[in-house]
Amino acid sequence: MPQYAPKAKQAAARGYGANVVLLKRWHECQALAEKLCKEKSLTLIQPHDDANIVAGQGTCAKELFEEVGELDYLFACVGGGSLSSGSSIVAKALYPNCKVYGVEPEAGNKAQQSMQLGKLVEIEPPKTIADGASPTKLGALPFRIMMQNIAGILTVTDAQLIDQMKFCAEKMKMVIEPTGCLGLAGAQFGGIDIKGKRVGVVITGGNVTLERFAHFITTK
Fold first, then answer.
1. Which of 12, 44, 123, 173 has the fewest beta carbons closer than 10 A?
2. Cα–Cα dist 210/188, whole Å
3. What domains can be seen in the chain, in order of their start residue?
4. Which helix (H) or strand (E) holds 101?
């Protein structure tokens, strides 16, 4: 894992019996995983750049559509791209008029840059509280899917993420990590006119310690 992974994620992995190795950058984690797989004949399961992972993440949107029906807009967070791309496949298949927007931190807008240029862009590790959206590059497969299906990429600030963490805690009684609030913050602050529309938001991730959560929601 990268060193900036929340302690809650590290503890959860260790709790499942994992040997957690902390490295400075995301690509170093990928390189070590590939090296260990070759040396020990292991199977590498990519976190996002894999067709099965993309399909599995897309079932989140599928369940949402099955429950609420057609939507005008769907907002999902962007890390490596599997959730947003998988969701876009489902939306295009079931309700092609639904516009899917990916949302990422303003400080780590590799997806926004990649879609604007039409090619994968790699950035420096972003300084953002949304650690789950900190990969420095999209997966190649998610990027191709997003280029075809995604209506656009929105960015939000850390302050806007904290605002939505507070909203979820106060109004919905939900503990959400910063990355999990990306979609909600995008719907709220992304500049898309959603008034009077049917809007779906993927809120995912509660990997935050109570101490860190309390720090965020008490930040002015």
1. 173
2. 25
3. 7-40 (no CATH), 51-212 (3.40.50.1100)
4. strand 99-105
pLDDT recorded at residue 201: 97
Task: Give residue 2's pLDDT.
Answer: 85
pTM here is 0.90
Q: Give the residue carrying structure tokens 């509280």.
A: 129
Q: Which residues does 60 contact at the CB level (< 8 Å), separation at least 6?
A: 83, 86, 87, 202, 204
pLDDT of residue 219: 76
CA 157 distance to own-chain centroid: 15
CB of 165 closer than 8 Å to CB of 183: no
**In the prediction, which pLDDT does 184 show?**
97
Q: CA angle, 31 as apex, 29 and 34 as ends, to 5°?
A: 110
Q: How far apart are the first and last CA of the chain?
A: 30
The amino acid at residue 177 is E
| Mean pLDDT of successive 10-residue stretches along the chain, which has 220 residues | 84 93 86 94 90 96 97 96 97 97 96 96 90 89 97 97 95 93 97 97 87 86
DSSP collapsed to 3 states, 145-160:
HHHHHCCEEEEECHHH
- Nearest CA to 119 among 103, 140, 134, 101? 140
- Residue 117, helix vs strand vs coil: helix
Tell me phi and psi for residue 73, to 5 degrees. Answer: -140, 150
